[in-house]
Amino acid sequence: MVLRQLSGAHSFAEKLVMLVMSKLKGNGWILILIMLSSGLARNVRAQDAHEKDTLSVHNLDEITVSSVRSGTVLSSFSPFKTETITTSGLKKMACCNLSESFENSASATVSFTDAVSGAKQIQLLGLAGIYTQTLTENIPALRGLAATYGLSHTPASWLESIQISKGTSSVVNGYESIAGQMNLEFKKPNFTDPLFVNLYIDDDLHYEGNITAATQISQKLWTGLLLSGTLGTAVHDENGDGFLDMPKMKYVNAYNRWFYLDDEKGIQSRTGIRFLYEDRKAGQDSLCHVKHNIPLDGITLWESSIINKNLAVYNKTGFSVGDREGQSLGIINSFTHYEQYSGFGPKTFNGIQNSYYLNILFSSYIHNTNHRYTTGASFTYDRYDTEFEDLSHTPLTPLNRTEAVAGAFAEYTNTQVKNLTLTAGLRADYNSCFGRLITPRFNAKYDVNTWITVRASAGRGFHSPNVLAEHIGLMASSRAFDISTVKHPDIEEAWNFGGNIAFNIPLWEDRQARLSIDGFHTAFRNQVIVDTERDRNAVFFYSSGGSANYANAWQADLSATLFKNFDLFAAFRYNNNRITYTDGTQRVETDKPLLSSYRGLVNLSYATGLRRWVFDLTAQLNGPARLPGLNGYDSEKIYSPAFPVYFAQVTRNSKRFDVYLGAENLLGYKQKDPIREWADPFGRDFDASMVWGPVSGARIYGGIRLRVGKLY
Known about the structure:
Blueprint: H1 2-7, H2 9-24, H3 29-57, E1 72-74, E2 82-85, H4 87-90, E3 108-112, E4 120-124, E5 127-128, E6 132-136, E7 140-141, E8 159-166, E9 180-186, E10 195-202, E11 207-216, E12 221-232, E13 248-262, E14 267-283, H5 286-291, E15 303-320, E16 328-344, E17 347-365, E18 371-390, E19 394-398, E20 401-414, E21 420-431, E22 435-447, E23 452-463, H6 467-470, E24 480-482, E25 492-506, E26 512-526, E27 528-531, E28 538-543, E29 549-563, E30 566-582, E31 587-591, E32 598-607, E33 613-622, E34 643-653, E35 657-664, E36 699-708
Parallel strand pairs: 6-9, 24-28
Antiparallel strand pairs: 1-2, 2-8, 3-4, 4-5, 6-7, 8-9, 10-11, 10-36, 11-12, 12-13, 13-14, 14-15, 15-16, 16-17, 17-18, 18-19, 18-20, 20-21, 21-22, 22-23, 23-25, 25-26, 26-29, 27-28, 29-30, 30-31, 30-32, 32-33, 33-34, 34-35, 35-36
């Protein structure tokens, strides 16, 4: 039944276009897009016919055999439980930036930090994104001030793939991984299209353009330029509360990459420089008030202004050393300068971060390649110059900090026993703020047979908190901030234990299904508690000490190609997170607030011959989340409802052009009144930080992708 519906290309497309027209109610841009799509389709058909005619009168000199990887791939070789979102997976939705790239991922979830700023945060194993170490080609990134808005600063069109590893993984990149690691692989100048253009527009009149270009300078040198821009200045207020549903935004991002390769000397070097500027305007808007007949006379608008600036430079150079094949030395240098200026009504938070990262790695083996090891030393320097002010409660307060970390590490991998891979790592660091930190980690993978693979992991991780920057969504409220412990918080420490079993299940016609089941337990020895339940008008930050704070996450996912060009991916995840609050006299253990207890996901993808047409449909079911108590720790537990979210996209592909049309949150489900006491934003009970669901309705979008030059 499902296959027959998906096979009806014209019927599905017609229904989607009807939905688009009903949603847009006359907006003219979509008519242009549909006409463009039809024109491109006609051109493609003409080009295909011409190619067929050409082949009929010429000999075929070359045959190219190609294949398309699944959108999500589970590594069969890594001892770490690693899920890769491929280029195909990134195209299943518009995926304008990294924060929109996980709707088809079973492991990672992205949610809004508040109902004003548009900032999003990732969740892995039911834990906030600050406990997931984000890497850009194995260089630590999105740290400190960049943690809040960094997800939206990475265009998905720049990416080649995303690797997500659950649990504590390698010690090579530092001690910051607690829930897992996320590594972003960008398009390589030496292996990408000479010119790629992606243009996007949606019914909110949000425009985005992404360009990647690459060229070979000499036999050993390549360069690439990646550009991205966003413009969204339209005013939208669907629920009539006078607040913008999404911020107005101006954004420009430029990234220049250089790649040097000398095979004869065994030298490979990558250098990059990146610049970012972003301006967000959010909060109340006078046009919203006029549209919904909300009086403006004599009132002060609650407004938010956020400016982000970033300059980053890095170099990665690797050398082949000695006579052993596969023995190498690598040196990584990275410098980041980040500025953030933000205002939320009467609150302001401004900061400048300067960070330097050095990592020196040596890789070799003992006797033979069954005993491989990597050892090295690293140095990290962070300087934060930040300040916080709340005109209602707190005078201008500087919160400056300098943190330097020097460390050494070693990681050993043993593959001597058939079908068994063991990886053990240990690193020792000295932190100028927190002293000596020891990080042991262990991972194992065993192939029971051709059909079954088992993995296990255990390890320790640390996180140096930047409390206000990492919880900036709370500033979209009238709560008073208790910052007595913000200046010098204790380092967060946790142990993570987990396991995974994967099955390859034979189907029909030599096809296989892949079933993966895993469970992870994260136990905090110390955690920064963000307490919004002791007092409905305040927020308190304090260290948990030895309290029983933990997170359990269980997940099962199934992927299969049921029929030719018809793929199924289904997953279900259950979270059980506990947090302990204290006011100095009593301790209360309860469910972590604003965390969905479960999430179900089904993605169906069908493609016609040669993938000329591709249809994607995704359905999510998000479980209930406990809402923060507003009357102290003894408040009655209240949960949000479970809710579904649907996504659909149709793509018309050709050799040079792709045209796509889609919808997000297809049925328009929204959290009712995500802003508490919106009519009195300067009153004591105003709060826009209690977000558990979508804050805006259905979004219809479309765009084109263009490739020029030799195609990879």
